[in-house]
UniProtKB/TrEMBL annotation:
Taxonomy, superkingdom: Bacteria
Protein name according to UniProt: Methyltransferase domain-containing protein
A cellular component annotation (GO) from this entry: cytoplasm
SUPFAM superfamilies: S-adenosyl-L-methionine-dependent methyltransferases
The Methyltransferase domain, residue ranges: 159-293
PANTHER family associated with the record: METHYLTRANSFERASE DOMAIN-CONTAINING PROTEIN, PTHR13369
Length: 404
């Protein structure tokens, strides 16, 4: 049989296995194409937003990249890869393995092996991941319209539910960096309290800790709603209070959270957290208007006017500069900082977390404090000049701008 016939047979078996629901995965190796450092591609079936897709893992020398494609497009793409770029491809189904190999002198061989033990199709592996916050029996999830009374998550609340769990996963690993248990948590700008309730649930019912949590929120209607839900859930150490972050009367705080508190409200929250000597500060900033306005003022003069003349680049620069200076100020006050994306931006573009973990005096990071502080002040000064910024709100709250 000719090469073309073998190739076609392989492609037919591939698409038939998917249609028949017996496809497990395909692996393609011995790459001969032009992409630098690409070694293999593995393809499996996944379910994204209840739609079956083909997920390609491009395995490079030092990293993996995953791309998902609709089934028809994915099959065509695999067909092209097998014909042109990879010298060996193995199709794994629940019953057999089919191997296509490009030999020397352009000859193609097609072999089949029966599998010894039956394997499940990949989609079956891809069932809903076990989540930390289990929805069954959770009054707050019902009242927030995330799940029904039987614990089924509503279709239109799947993203929110995933997001809540992801926050809790991140917070739980960050909390491990604290020296002891978390006793006092304040969630500033708590809104409808999705995370506040979930964190309470996690601390009290998964970790069996007895933390007091306060949700601080400007909107009275949300405060009333959340207090009502806290009561009906029996969460007696959870309170929602009305007020602004700037006016919040300081109490002891171990963990301060402010997710999507708008513009300078994030600075107010960091300020309160640092003053309270909070062990952990976790903020997801949004609407970086204050620094953007500063940068707009000097847009034509500063060193990066070739970038900031474009609205989108201005926006991104303002975000990075605002949060970068926030992180520097946290470091100035003895916090170790991390900045990372916490959720795919398919869900929300407001997806950067700025985290500060208070260091102890013996921490190597805190050693040589004065020299480090001088260095940070100099860095803030230079950055402001470079980006054409008169002041940064957090810097002003601490009066740091008067110290240069
Ligand atoms: C975008 S919502 C986010 C809610 C919640 N943190 C979340 O991530 O689901 C921001 C909330 O912060 C509140 N907020 C904004 N600025 C505030 C301030 N300065 N003081 C108190 N609440 C504030 C708003 O009323 C709103 O409910």
């Amino acid at each position: 049989m000719s090469n073309q016939v073998y190739l076609q047979q392989f492609k037919d078996q591939l698409s038939e296995s998917i249609t028949a629901g017996v496809f497990v995965k395909i692996s393609m190796g011995n790459y001969q194409g032009n992409e630098k450092e690409l070694k293999n591609i593995y393809v499996r079936l996944v379910e994204i937003k209840r739609t079956a897709m083909l997920s390609f893992t491009y395995r490079y020398k030092t990293r993996d990249i995953i791309k998902n494609f609709p089934i028809t497009e994915g099959i065509t793409l695999m067909g092209n890869f097998i014909s042109n770029d990879f010298r060996i491809a193995t199709l794994f189904t629940t019953e057999k393995e089919v191997i296509l190999e490009h030999g020397k002198k352009q000859l193609i061989a097609l072999r089949e092996k029966k599998v010894k033990t039956a394997v499940q199709p990949t989609l079956a592996h891809n069932k809903e991941k076990k989540r930390i916050i289990v929805p069954a029996g959770k009054t707050y999830l019902q009242e927030l319209r995330i799940s029904d009374a039987d614990g089924n998550v509503f279709k239109n609340a799947q993203d929110k539910y995933r997001q809540i769990n992801q926050y809790i996963e991140i917070l739980s690993s960050l909390m491990r960096e604290l020296p002891g248990e978390v006793n006092n948590v304040v969630d500033m700008g708590s809104g409808k309290g999705y995370l506040t309730f979930a964190l309470y649930d996690y601390l009290h019912h998964v970790l069996n800790q007895n933390a007091k949590i306060t949700g601080l929120e400007y909107r009275e209607d949300l405060v009333a709603l959340c207090n009502r839900i806290a009561e009906s859930s029996g969460f007696d150490k959870l309170d929602f209070v009305q007020g602004t972050i700037a006016d919040y009367a300081l109490e002891s705080i171990d963990l301060l959270i402010a997710l999507h508190a708008c513009d300078t409200a994030t600075d107010d929250a960091i300020y309160k957290g640092i003053l309270a000597n909070a062990g952990l500060i976790v903020v997801a900033p949004c609407c970086h208007k204050q620094i953007r306005r500063e940068m707009e003022k000097n847009k034509s003069k500063n060193e990066i006017s070739f970038l900031t003349k474009y609205g989108i680049f201005m926006e991104r620069q303002a975000e990075m500069v605002t949060d970068g200076i926030r992180a520097l100020i946290m470091e100035y006050f003895g916090y170790k900082t991390k900045v990372f994306e916490f959720i795919s931006d398919a869900h929300t573009p407001k997806n950067v977390l700025v985290v500060g973990v208070k260091t102890s005096g013996s921490d190597t990071f805190a050693k040589d404090g004065d020299a480090r502080k001088a260095e940070i002040k100099q860095k803030i000064l230079e950055s402001k000049a470079y980006f054409g910024i008169g002041y940064h709100h957090l810097e002003r709250l601490f009066g740091l701008d008067k110290l240069y």
